[in-house]
Amino acid sequence: MTLLALENVSVAYNHQHYILRDFNLNIEKGQFISLLGPSGCGKTTTLRLIAGFLEASHGKFTFDGKDYTRVPVNKRNFGFVFQSYALFPHLSVFENVAFGLRLRKVQESEISKRVGRILEVVSLNGFEKRFPKELSGGQKQRVAIARALVIEPDLLLFDEPLSNLDANLRTHMRVEIRRIQQELGITTVYVSHDQEECFSISDQVAIMNNGVIEQLDRPATIFKYPRTEFVARFIGFSNFIAFSQRIDHDEEIVLKESDYEFRVLRHRGTQDTTGRKIAIRPEDILITTETNTSLNQIAAERANGEATNMVSGIVTVSTFLGRSYQYVVKTELGDFMVNKEMEEPYGNGSRVQLSFPSEKLVIVD
User: Fold this and answer.
1) Helix (H) or strand (E) holding 212
2) From CA 64, how far away is CA 58, in angstroms rounded?
3) Per-residue pLDDT tens over the stretch 127-152
């Protein structure tokens, strides 16, 4: 069931510079959805619009079947977790968490009960009398989460909540955030520019670019089958080949450019696309030493129309990555980045043969 819907929403600063234009987004009840993209893509604007900090110049925002387009922020029962924690330094942990309940004039006995319960959920029971200056970064973040949750919000919003934490603590906290969200079953919208962070905790991820959602899907689907070149580049695809001819068959798609022919297996990532450009990750390209025998064999197969998904090239850059080597290989179809685990690396100038597995290729628009 759709809980939240943004319908043809536009947001502009100074009535001129549009951050969102005719933007649409639907979120199901109980879902954890992340908005992911580079700086300036509109993800934080979308979150602030949902929270009520910004007002749309056009379009409609509905929540639980009600029109929220002009509902002020203090009338929306939404919990918001800020990037900077936004804790009151002069208040204890208990009073920070209780702040929203006091504004709502909840009885003291109920405040004590609810604050105690939510501090247990975020594993901070026993910290009630401490002040923010006595807490670590992760503990401060959990206080901020508890404060957002204690009001029993209809929606939970996160604005890059882990960006101020070190790498190890970020990993721990994202697991905690997901645990709390699943335990309470609360619908959550999460904003970040960290791909791994969003993919690890979300039911769905919206990849945004210039105020538009380029792809909204399950993390695993986006990782395997990006729909556009922007999404592919954003999630780590660095090799692209453009073709001038495309022929569709039942089980595969054939793409041609000059004397080269590539075959792409039909899978979920090719169902709706009409593009003529393929993408592949560096670790999915197979690289082998090129010999005179292999050269002659490829030439013969190409003459007979049998050589597919293969191209010869020369290594121009070799980089050690720890477990593997990364190569830049110059070919007639362009330069390709290739990763391979090996003991003895190829040196610059080495002639190699690249093979592109048809099941690893993705066609992008």
Assistant:
1) strand 212-217
2) 20
3) 989 999 999 888 888 898 889 888 88
